[in-house]
Amino acid sequence: MLLHSDTTEKILSGFYTVYNTLGYGFLEKVYENSLMLEFEFMQLKAIQQATIKVFYNEKEVGNYFADILVDNKVIVEVKAGKGEIKEHELQVSNYLKATNYEVALILHFGERPTFKRVVFSNDYK
């Protein structure tokens, strides 16, 4: 079973609901706000622009602001437009490496809805 699969399945369900309702062409903030409504409906605890502490050698070195943090365990990055998920994957991997979180989803509201699940176990940090 995948780490936090119960939560990520609900997030993806909300993602496809928002995409099927709004379609392609809005700014990221519109999708982010719509996802928050879906997550509330699904009774997921979600925080927009959640402040996440970043560590280097076990010392706090700054903050990162996740688009959405769900159930205090899954980072959600919302992307829109023609950009590829690949270019955001490294960024999200670094967020996971430098924080106590292990799972992130990149949700891309492009011409086709696509997502990428990124995992970096705390055992390897």
Biggest pleated sheet: 5 strands, mixed
Number of helices: 3
Total strands: 5
Helix/strand-derived class?
A: alpha+beta
Described by the principal axes of the CA atoms, the overall outline is globular
The poorly predicted ranges are none
- Report the sheet-strand fraction: 35-45%
Helix content: 25-40%
**Rg over alpha carbons:** 14 Å
Instruction: Walk across the major sheet and give the strand order.
Output: 1-2-3-4-5
Mean pLDDT: 93
Features:
alpha+beta, five-stranded mixed beta sheet
Characterization of the model:
The structure is a single chain. This protein has 125 residues and is of the alpha+beta class. Helix content is 35%, strand content 35%. It is built from 3 helices and 5 strands, in the order ααβββαββ. The chain has a 5-stranded mixed sheet with strand order 1-2-3-4-5, with helices on both faces. β4 (103-109) and β5 form a beta hairpin. The model has no long low-confidence stretch (mean pLDDT 93).
Strand-helix topology:
Elements: H1 5-22, H2 28-41, E1 46-56, E2 59-70, E3 74-80, H3 86-97, E4 103-109, E5 113-119
Parallel strand pairs: 3-4
Antiparallel strand pairs: 1-2, 2-3, 4-5
